Structures are given as C-alpha cells and as structure tokens.
C-alpha cells in the first residue's frame, strides 16, 4: 500500500490538540485513514458497528466495486473466470495468486483428488445427529471435527501445515456435504471417485446409489462447477471476517473454517438462498405472479419485517455480477432439463423486473444478489433447499482459507480484539440480598 502525501487532520471543537492521520492508497478502490494510533493519541475509539466504514485488513485476493457491480479475483473479472476457467483453476488462483498453467493445474487437481476421502470414523459423528438435523448444523460439526483427525496439519505457523490443511479442506468439503445429505435421506454414503471432475464427483456422491451406475450430466456438471466459482470468495464479508478473527487467535484452520460455516448459515448472509427459495414458494402458493404486488407492498411496509430475500447488498449498489451469471446458468440448466417453464423461475424474473422498476428498491439501490437465482438452479439440479447454504459453504471454503492464510503469512498480524462504547451501569457496590 502507498502512503499518500495528503494526510487526514482530526481537530476537536473542545480545543483538544489536532491529530494527523496517515492516508494510504491501494491498487484500486477507496483510500484508508490509518487510525491505529488514534486511541494512544486521543484516548478515544472510532465507532463503527457493522463496519460500514472500516477496512479490517489489507488484502490482494478479491476486489469489489459496489457501484460498478464489479468483482475481481486476483484482478481477473468474475465473468471471465466463470466462463473461461473451472473451479479448481479458481481455487489455485485464490490460494497462490496466479492462474495455473496446464502442468500446475494437473498437479493441483491430482492433489485435491487424492484427498477427497474422509477418515472412516467421521461417519460416527453423523450418527450423533437426528436424521432431520439441518445440514448446516451437521456441517458445522463435521468441519470442526476435522481438527480431531488431522493433527499433522494444525500448526498454523508452519506453511506446509497450512498448505496441506487447505488441500484437505477443499478436497473433503464436497464429501462431507454429500454425507450430510445422504445421512438426512437415509441413503448409504457414496465414496468419491478419482476419475471424475470436482463437480462431477460431488454430483455423483449426492445422487448416486449403490444400486446402479450414475452418469454425470455434463451440463449439470458445468453448472455446479460455475456455482462453486461464483461463490468462491467475496472480500471481507461476515463469514470471511469471522474466519480471520477466529484464526487470529492461533487456532487450527479446521476450527476457523467451522466458525465461517456457522456464520454463513445466517439468513442475512449465506442462508439467503434458502430463504429466497422459500419466499418464492410462498408467493407461488399465494397465487404466483398475480400476488407479486401484494408481496412487494408487504416488503415496503417496514412493520411487516418482510424482506425481498436475494435482494440488496452491503457493497453492491448495482447489479451483483454473480446474479447475472447465475441467471444464465439457470437458463442453461432449466432448458437442459426441459424445465424452461419452471414457474418459480418465471416468478423470480417477474419479481426482479417489478422490483427494479419500483422506487422503493431503486432509491435504496437494491438489486438481485448472488442468492436470488442460485436457489432455483440448485433446486432444478435436485438439491434440497436445506442444502443450498451447505453448497455455498463448500464453495466458499477456498476463499476462507486463502484469506486466513494471507493473514497468517503477514508477520505484522495480531489477534483481533475490538473495543466498545460502554453504556452500562457505572461502578456500584453489591448489597446483601436482604437489602436488594
Ligand atoms: C450474501 O457481504 C457479502 O459479500 C455477502 C455475500 C458473499 O458473497 O459473501 O455477497 C453473500 O450474503 C449476499 C446477501 C444475501 N442476503 C440477502 O439477500 C438478505 C436480504 N438482504 C438484506 O437483508 C440486506 O440487503 C443485506 C443484509 C444483504 C445488506 O444489508 P445492509 O447493507 O445492512 O443494508 P440495510 O439492511 O441497512 O438496508 C438498507 C435499506 C434499509 O431501508 P431503510 O432503513 O434505508 O429505509 O434497504 C432496505 C433496508 O430496510 N433493505 C431491504 C432489503 N435489503 C435492504 N428492503 C427489502 N428487502 C431487502 N432485501
């Protein structure tokens, strides 16, 4: 980062001495004001709950321009990666900073492929859950449980450990997500196959049974791979910030990633795709397109507490580029499966069109985000709604690891420990219970 000539001067109306704060510029995007010395110099904290104006770190991994609706992974536009590369190439890019050449891609693919099996004992963790447990509850448990197995890769200060833990997590997430699914429907687990692609392997572990050969549909395989790429990383979102904060204590990578899975589950974050599909099904049950106006009116009435799920974003104040690509993938999958007239897809497109013409959404710059169409395409592929966020977690694991490893590789990193504005009771003495 580059120190700017001009600085920020903080002056106080009560006559306290002004403070000069350095300003830094990155490659692109907003400059930052360095406030690290502010408390020492002024005895005051900054105040920014929700981190609306706070940069928590410097990073070279992902850049988002919310106004332009631009998303770059290591400088490459998501539109190019999602159409010209596959997910494992994107994983390599996010982890190591450059796209792999053919030899590097083959080696990386082989390393991931050879780690797709999980320890046989993992099955016994699943048995502890009710069959109807939410897959995200199961996945949070399974990912955390990985730290009970892979002791030879939990020293985060050892770059080799960080490397093998990254490969293990990327390789085993599809297996664990598929196991959580099979456990829920009472079917036997399907072991990974080394002759299938990453996405093809996942589809087979999800939908194959021991009773017959499973043939991977190449259109669905490509769609699944693209869904993984579109969800791979997204700057300092809530779950990534959780992984960084958790990892900053020096805990092992599996525990830090499990914290990210837990955070992603929330409906305001990764759980929005499940919430969005449930919302579409609710409108469909109310009467479909004819009821969109009534639903939109509810959304605009704050007291209803109803939100248009899959719309709006903290950073994007324009179309989320991933939503456009997800809509295209939706079209491809639905036409491949002869579901062009899927009522929910028609409903979603109508809902988007109406919302984008409505001043309430236009004024607030609320556009479809990655979650608006992802549920429809996953449902068409046959993935149950309750597993949507699990697939988001599967895909985002590489982003979480890349961000965690970037932090751990920075010799200056410290344990994250925010402060607060205390508004509780001033010091007071305990009274004996008879006097309370
Ligand atoms: C993801 O951070 C990331 O990068 C996340 C993510 C990633 O890849 O990691 O992109 C993935 O989480 C996408 C977002 C998925 N969430 C949803 O789709 C849930 C619905 N959307 C929201 O609840 C909301 O838009 C957030 C949480 C996404 C963003 O919330 P902000 O930035 O805190 O904005 P806000 O809640 O303050 O809303 C601003 C205004 C408010 O109205 P006013 O108070 O100004 O009158 O817009 C309104 C909100 O009421 N609003 C919505 C709305 N989203 C915001 N109104 C109706 N429907 C919505 N979806």
UniProtKB/TrEMBL annotation:
MF (Gene Ontology): citrate synthase activity
Record's keyword annotation contains Transcription regulation: no
Metabolic or biological pathway: Carbohydrate metabolism; tricarboxylic acid cycle; isocitrate from oxaloacetate: step 1/2
Residue positions of the active site: 313, 371
SUPFAM superfamilies attached to this UniProt entry: Citrate synthase
UniProt GO BP: tricarboxylic acid cycle
Keyword DNA-binding tagged: no
InterPro entries reported for this sequence: Citrate_synth-like_lrg_a-sub (IPR016142), Citrate_synth-like_sm_a-sub (IPR016143), Citrate_synthase (IPR002020), Citrate_synthase_AS (IPR019810), Citrate_synthase_bac-typ (IPR024176), Citrate_synthase_sf (IPR036969), Citrate_synthase_typ-I (IPR010953)
A Pfam family this chain is assigned to: Citrate_synt
Highest taxon, organism lineage: Bacteria
Keywords: Acyltransferase, Transferase, Tricarboxylic acid cycle
Gene Ontology, cellular component aspect: cytoplasm
Record field: catalytic activity: oxaloacetate + acetyl-CoA + H2O = citrate + CoA + H(+)
Family statement: Belongs to the citrate synthase family.
Record protein name field: Citrate synthase
Name of encoding gene: aarA
């Amino acid at each position: 980062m580059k120190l700017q000539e001009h600085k920020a001067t903080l002056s106080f109306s009560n006559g306290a001495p002004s403070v000069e704060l350095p300003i830094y510029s990155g490659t692109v995007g907003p400059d930052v004001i360095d406030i690290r010395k502010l408390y020492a110099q002024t005895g005051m904290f900054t105040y920014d709950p929700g981190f609306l104006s706070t940069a928590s770190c410097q990073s070279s991994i992902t850049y988002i321009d919310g106004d332009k609706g631009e998303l770059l992974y290591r400088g490459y536009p998501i539109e190019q990666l999602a159409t010209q590369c596959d997910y494992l190439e994107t994983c390599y890019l996010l982890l190591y900073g450059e796209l792999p050449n053919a030899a590097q891609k083959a080696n990386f693919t082989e390393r991931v492929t050879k780690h797709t099996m999980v320890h046989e004992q993992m099955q016994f963790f699943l048995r502890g859950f009710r069959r109807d447990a939410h897959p995200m509850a199961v996945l949070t448990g399974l990912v955390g449980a990985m730290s009970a197995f892979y002791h030879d890769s939990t020293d985060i200060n050892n770059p080799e450990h960080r490397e093998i833990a990254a490969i293990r997590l990327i390789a085993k997430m599809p297996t664990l997500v598929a196991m959580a699914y099979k456990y829920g429907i009472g079917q036997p687990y399907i072991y990974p196959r080394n002759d299938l692609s990453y996405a093809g392997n996942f589809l087979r572990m999800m939908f194959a049974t021991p009773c017959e050969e499973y043939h991977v549909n190449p259109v669905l395989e490509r769609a699944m791979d693209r869904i993984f790429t579109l969800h791979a990383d997204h700057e300092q979102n809530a779950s990534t910030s959780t992984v960084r904060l958790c990892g900053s204590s020096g805990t092992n990578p599996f525990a830090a990633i499990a914290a990210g899975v837990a955070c992603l589950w929330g409906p305001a974050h990764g759980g929005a795709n499940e919430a969005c599909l449930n919302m579409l099904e609710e409108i469909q049950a109310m009467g479909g397109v004819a009821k969109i106006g009534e639903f939109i009116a509810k959304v605009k009435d704050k007291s209803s507490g109803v939100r248009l799920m899959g719309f709006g974003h903290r950073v994007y104040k324009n179309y989320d580029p991933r939503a456009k690509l997800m809509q295209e993938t939706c079209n491809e999958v639905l036409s491949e499966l002869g579901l062009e007239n899927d009522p929910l897809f028609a409903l979603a497109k109508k809902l988007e069109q109406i919302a984008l013409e409505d001043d309430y959404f236009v004024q607030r710059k609320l556009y479809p985000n990655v979650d608006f169409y992802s549920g429809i395409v996953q449902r068409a592929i046959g993935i149950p709604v309750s597993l949507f966020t699990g697939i988001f977690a599967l895909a985002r694991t590489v982003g979480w690891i890349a961000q965690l490893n970037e932090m751990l590789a920075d010799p200056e990193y410290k344990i994250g420990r925010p402060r607060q504005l205390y508004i509780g009771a001033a010091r007071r003495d305990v009274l004996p219970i008879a006097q309370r």
